[in-house]
Structures are given as structure tokens and as C-alpha cells.
């Protein structure tokens, strides 16, 4: 999958290779299948059991999006229309046709899933959630499946991060309205990971709310994008 964050959602990994190079995230154990086709090798690894319970990126269209102004949360409704601004060098990520718009006078204030280039020009499938200021742009998922872990990744659009001139982005993750994790993203961090232990069991599986708040004292060119999944424990982590 273009833009994957890791392999937790997959059962197998296939790779085409020359000079015996392996993908950076390939398992350390030997592949279970190797075939040679001229100068190209095909590898396949069987992966541990999938642990992903709920993918927030793929379900963001069902979430509530709000922008907080003067401590009042105002809705950012989803709509479907023509693609928005962006695309090409210096123009940022293209705003997709289906998106939540928070402020039409600021064309970058929208929320939607995209594929974004991170600091190292790697594609990342993520939720674009550009901050509006010191008060957050907020995305809330209601009554979703919960599990023992929530794994969160976040980063900035590469053109906004590579010069290392911008201020930090503050990300707060709440579960059932209680603080669960926080990421302070500074230029140079690249695509960063945050592991959150929720304290919730896998069985019986509860449901609840997950909120992602993104803010920045100086929101100029702070194109933040994130990916997150609710997960069970991996087999080796089970109690």
C-alpha cells in the first residue's frame, strides 16, 4: 500500500529486488519464498498476526471535525466538490474533493485523508490537519472499537519542514475525553511515532471516543498530517 506507516495491518510482505536488497521494514528473519527471474528476485515474508483493530485514517469521513475559536468549538462540515487548491512545487498537498473545510478564507484549513510526502520524500497515507493557531483544530471519532494500544504517527509536509524555520506543532490525543498522549513535533523530526498504552482490554472489546487536537502558536506553513490505528497486543506482548 502506497504510504503505509508500518506492517501491522498486513499478513504478507512481497518485494521485488535487484542486488539482494530488502525493504527497510522487512522482518529480520529469512523470507519463506525466494524466486529468481533473470536479474530480479522475488521475496515473500509471512508476517505475525495482524493487530490493527481500527484505522482512523480510513474512517476519518465519519468523524466530527471542529475548529476551536475563543474556546468555542465550531463545526467544520464535510462536503464533496471539486478538488481544492494545491499540487505542484510550492503549492502543497492537493485538497481532495471530499474534505471538511474549517475556514474558506484560509484555503489550507481543511481535514481529509491524503498521500503526503514527508521530510524524506516518502509517501504517507495520513489525515491532513493543518493547525489554525494556539487553539486546536479537532477531529473526534465517536463509539469506535478500542484496544490496548493506539499507535500514532505524525509529520509535516516536506516543503514546510525541510528549511527548519517553523515553530513546533502540538498534538494531543484524548481517549474518552481524558489525555492519553502528546506529540510536540519540531522541524527535523520527520515522520515520528508515538505509542500509547490505553489500559483498555481486547476482550471484551469496549468502544469509546478518540480525539486528535492539533495546534501551533505560529500556524504558518505547518502542514501537519497524521496516521493512527487502534491495535491489539502482538502475540509476544500478550500477558
Give the integer mean of the pLDDT values: 93
* Major sheet: 8 strands, antiparallel
CATH class of the largest domain: Mainly Beta
Low-confidence stretches: none
Cα gyration radius (Å): 19 Å
Query: How many strand segments?
Result: 17
| CATH fold-level topology of the largest domain | Jelly Rolls
Secondary structure class reads mainly beta
Summarize the structure.
It contains 1 helix and 17 strands. It has 239 residues and is mostly beta strands.
List keywords for this structure.
Jelly Rolls; mainly beta; 239 residues; 6-stranded antiparallel sheet; single chain; globular
Description:
The structure is a single chain. The protein is mainly β. It has 2 domains: 35 residues, no CATH class; 186 residues, Sandwich (Jelly Rolls), CATH 2.60.120. Helices cover 2% and strands 46% of the residues. It is built from 1 helix and 17 strands. Strands 4, 7, 8, 9, 10, 12, 15 and 17 form an 8-stranded antiparallel β-sheet that branches. A 6-stranded antiparallel β-sheet has the order 6-5-11-16-13-14, with no helix packed on it. It has a 3-stranded antiparallel β-sheet with strand order 1-3-2, with no helix packed on it. A hairpin with a 2-residue loop joins strand 5 and strand 6. The radius of gyration is 19 Å and the shape is globular. The mean pLDDT is 93.
Amino acid at each position: 500500500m502506497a504510504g503505509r506507516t508500518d506492517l501491522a495491518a498486513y499478513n504478507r510482505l512481497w518485494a521485488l529486488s535487484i542486488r539482494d536488497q530488502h525493504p527497510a521494514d522487512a522482518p529480520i528473519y529469512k523470507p519463506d519464498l525466494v524466486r529468481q527471474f533473470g536479474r530480479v528476485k522475488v521475496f515473500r515474508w509471512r508476517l505475525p498476526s495482524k493487530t490493527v483493530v481500527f484505522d482512523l485514517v480510513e474512517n476519518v469521513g465519519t468523524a466530527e471535525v471542529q475548529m476551536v475559536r475563543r474556546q468555542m468549538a465550531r463545526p467544520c462540515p464535510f462536503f464533496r466538490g471539486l478538488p481544492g487548491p494545491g499540487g505542484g512545487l510550492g503549492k502543497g498537498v492537493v485538497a481532495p474533493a471530499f474534505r471538511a473545510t474549517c475556514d474558506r478564507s484560509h484555503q489550507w484549513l481543511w481535514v481529509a485523508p491524503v498521500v503526503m510526502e514527508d521530510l524524506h520524500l516518502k509517501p504517507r497515507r495520513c489525515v491532513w490537519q493543518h493547525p489554525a493557531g494556539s487553539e486546536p483544530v479537532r477531529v473526534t471519532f465517536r463509539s469506535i472499537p478500542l484496544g490496548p494500544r493506539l499507535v500514532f504517527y505524525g509529520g509535516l509536509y516536506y516543503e514546510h519542514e525541510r528549511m527548519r524555520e517553523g515553530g513546533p506543532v502540538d498534538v494531543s490525543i484524548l481517549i474518552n475525553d481524558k489525555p492519553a498522549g502528546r506529540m510536540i513535533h519540531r522541524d527535523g523530526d520527520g515522520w515520528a511515532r508515538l505509542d500509547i498504552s490505553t489500559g483498555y482490554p481486547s476482550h471484551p472489546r469496549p468502544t469509546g471516543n478518540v480525539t486528535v487536537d492539533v495546534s501551533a502558536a505560529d500556524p504558518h506553513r505547518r502542514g501537519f498530517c497524521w496516521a493512527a490505528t487502534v491495535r491489539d497486543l502482538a502475540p509476544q506482548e500478550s500477558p
